[in-house]
Amino acid sequence: MNLQELREHYTKGGLDDASMPDNPIPFFEHWLHEALKAEVVEPNAMALATVDSNGHPDVRIVLLKGLSDREIVFYTNYDGTKGKQLDQHPYASATFWWGPLERQVRIRGAIHRQAQEASEAYFKSRPRASRVGAWASPQSEEIASREALDALFTAAEERFPGDDIPMPPNWGGYVMIIEEIEFWQGRGGRMHDRFRYWASQEAGQEGETMWTRKRLAP
């Protein structure tokens, strides 16, 4: 396989200064809806980057499960690697890639744990198997075999035979406050369109967030 010869020619769209809004959050939501309509597989999947205690980057795919105002939400096991890293360094970045639309969105911001009541409300909405799995998996710990992992799931099913499964104490949501968000649209000749927004420390009318927008070179 010759990786140097792999390339795509981006022709599906563009971004111009006049069409970019003052507030990027509704625009992000619009792009997310378009990814859903385009039947992108897991359109809410995002690569979440954190750092460990040595400052080394770590990245994995998680699912966006909440979007409102300047906040995005995802859920995980607090005792797993990402949870420990986020508790120690509560700042992260996330990237969405929607290949069929030739689009990318990058987000950075501070992180905090979601209120327990909100996490519990989401946990109750999950399929039963997912709720059982939250109890069964000692996330990021070594597992001797697939059979051992399946045994943990079976034991959790037996522990909670009905549908009333409480949320594990070490499971819940993280909220990222969007401080920067960048929109990338593929263009021909690798002359892609990039617009980055920064949240201002100053509040506008009625306390709404003020944003600074700049076009960036590809």
Would you summarize the structure shown here?
The chain is α+β, with helices and mostly antiparallel strands and 218 residues long. It contains five helices and nine strands, in the order H-E-E-E-E-H-E-E-H-H-H-E-E-E. It has one domain (8-125, 169-216): Roll (Pnp Oxidase, Chain A).
Can you describe what's shown?
By secondary structure, the chain is α+β, with helices and mostly antiparallel strands. The chain has a single domain, classed as Pnp Oxidase, Chain A (Roll), CATH 2.30.110.10. The chain contains five helices and nine strands; from the N terminus they run αββββαββαααβββ. The chain has helices at residues 24-37, 81-88, 116-125, 128-136, 146-159; strands spanning 45-51, 57-63, 66-68, 71-77, 91-98, 103-113, 171-185, 193-203, 209-216. Strands 1, 2, 3, 4, 5, 6, 7, 8 and 9 form a nine-stranded antiparallel β-sheet that branches.
